[in-house]
Predict the structure.
Amino acid sequence: MRPIWKGSISFGLVNIPVGLYSATRSAEQIKFHMLRKGDLSPIRYKRVAEADGKEVPWENIVKGYEYKKGQFVVLDDEDFERVKIASNQTVDIKEFVDLEEIDPMFFDQPYFLAPEKGGDKAYTILREALNRTNKVGIAKVVIKTREHLAAVKPMGEALVLELMYFADELADPKELKLPDTKNIGQRELKMAESLIENMVGKWEPNKYKDEYREALLELIKEKIKSGGKVAAGAKTSRAKSTRIVDLVSVLQQSLEQAQGGKKKKASARHRKAA
């Protein structure tokens, strides 16, 4: 695994040489091209001006900010250079806070931090200190010319740098029309709690797959084999109905189904033990 960059973690007078590594792998996207229906000729897009519909070459295009409807201020390369943030490749920890204090909504993109030459001891000390105190380091870091808020967290034997949203980047749920608790029936609530208890399991991320992507790839393979036609007998998924139903009845059925599943699993465990 190659580092995105090599730099350091900085807090107080301490500097720990580290490398920054991607902690996620994007699933290969299924890309589609826009084609003309008649002859499957690819569609191309042109940059045209609204005023006259004429195509505009790249050298005549500038960047503008719309500060009022229909009114723009143009920013050139010199303007962007004036506010450009230098990437000093330093994870600059400003403070340490309790992990429980941070709403998970703030977390965005994780990266691994690994020690570089001479940084093993200090890296290990920081990792174990964070583990023991249940604290995370809140830092500023520049990645790809943009400044980010980030958290330095321990994860097993690694330190993770998790990019975070700034407070003004999160939408306020108060803007939504949400129901209160006045009209909740206690019977339904108790049944819902029982259903949750019966569906409790252990978090095993590997058992969850992108079923839509797998089904779409399978359909594409079938159409390639059949010359562009859907093979006879091919299965298609149907969306579940969203009609309003009797909540008590659905909860009762779900609860009975969950309890039945638990009993089957328990019986299977007993048979294996015997």
Remarks:
- The chain has five helices and nine strands.
- The longest helix spans residues 247-273.
- Helices lie at 77-82, 120-133, 186-198, 211-225, 247-273.
- The chain has a mean pLDDT of 86.
